[in-house]
Amino acid sequence: AQKITQTQPGMFVQEKEAVTLDCTYDTSDPSYGLFWYKQPSSGEMIFLIYQGSYDQQNATEGRYSLNFQKARKSANLVISASQLGDSAMYFCAMSIYGGATNKLIFGTGTLLAVQP
Amino acid sequence: NAGVTQTPKFRVLKTGQSMTLLCAQDMNHEYMYWYRQDPGMGLRLIHYSVGEGTTAKGEVPDGYNVSRLKKQNFLLGLESAAPSQTSVYFCASSDPQGAWTDTQYFGPGTRLTVL
User: Fold this and answer.
1) What integer pLDDT is reported at residue B4 of this predicted model?
2) A31 at B interface, C-beta within 8 A
3) Mean pLDDT within B63-74
4) How many Å lie between the alpha carbon of A13 and the closest alpha carbon of chain B?
5) d(CA A54, CA A67)
6) Checking DSSP bridges between strand B110-114 and strand B10-13, what pairing results, if any?
7) Burial code of B14-37, b = ≥16 C-beta within 10 A, e = fewer?
8) Would A60 disulfide with which of A2, A65, B18, B60, CB 3.0-4.6 Å?
9) Do B42 and A106 touch (CB under 8 A)?
10) Where are the beta strands (DSSP E) in chain A?
11) Who contacts B33 (Cβ-Cβ below 8 Å, separation ≥6)?
12) pLDDT at B108
């Protein structure tokens, strides 16, 4: 079965430090995409970063990087130099091509609190 | 450029009432989706559309209907609301670039309470 697992319900990090949010996935499909979304307290879902299953290099977007370990089926999000505005819920998601379009499967999320 | 917008932002219904949630996108995206988010859970796909005039069922379609009469709009209907449909509803859209690589962009959500 296709599944995303986020084992950290909540995390604390000091401002300016780096933090890693864990995500493991399960699929037998060789073609898939991995996404991270941020959901601040205001509620909207903000796309952060994408990694394709065939991509050789880890994806980076500014302070966000995705640590992709295919053999371990993990796609951890690394946030460098945390800021107070990074406090939010973070969701890992996997896309599987469903024949007509890709369908996103979400994890249960990790609530990150950045402390001053 | 507003992206994906949703109307209304909040709504309270009584059991058995009906309502329609409207999603609009101005990015000329071909694909649109409706998700629901419940406490302690990630988003789950209700219905989706791969183009004007098309709709398909997602993971949790029961109790909902959808229509895509115009490319930019995707409507989600509840014919007879039930307390189990209390949730936050998100609309998303994407541009088909190649199977699993499509990035979905989300609206701000609609918080629905069914009493």
Assistant:
1) 95
2) yes
3) 96
4) 21
5) 14
6) parallel
7) eeeeebebebbbeeebbbbbbbbb
8) A65
9) yes
10) 3-5, 10-14, 19-21, 24-26, 32-39, 46-52, 60-61, 64-69, 74-79, 88-97, 102-106, 110-115
11) A104, B45, B47, B48, B49, B58, B74, B91, B92, B93, B94, B104
12) 94
Nearest residue on chain A to B109, alpha-carbon basis? A44
Among the listed ranges A87-91, B76-80, B102-106, which one has the minimum average pLDDT value? B102-106
Per-residue pLDDT of A78-99, as tens digits, reads 999 999 999 999 999 999 876 6
Q: B106 to chain A: which residues are within 8 Å by CB?
A: 37, 44-47
Cβ–Cβ < 8 Å for B70, A21: no
Q: Which two tokens stand for residue A104?
A: 């996103």
Question: B8 preceded by cis ω (within 30°)?
Answer: yes
The answer to whether residue B48 neighbours chain A at the CB level (below 8 Å) is yes
Q: How far apart are the first and last CA of chain A?
A: 41
Cβ-Cβ contacts under 8 Å between A and B: the total is 73
Per-residue pLDDT tens for B11-44?
999 999 999 999 999 999 999 999 999 988 889 9
CA distances to A81, A103, B36, B60, B88 from B115, rounded to whole Å, are 44, 31, 18, 21, 15
> Token pair 């601040």 is at which residue?
A40
Whether residue A47 and residue B105 make contact (CB cut-off 8 A), yes or no, is yes
Write down the H helix ranges in chain A: none
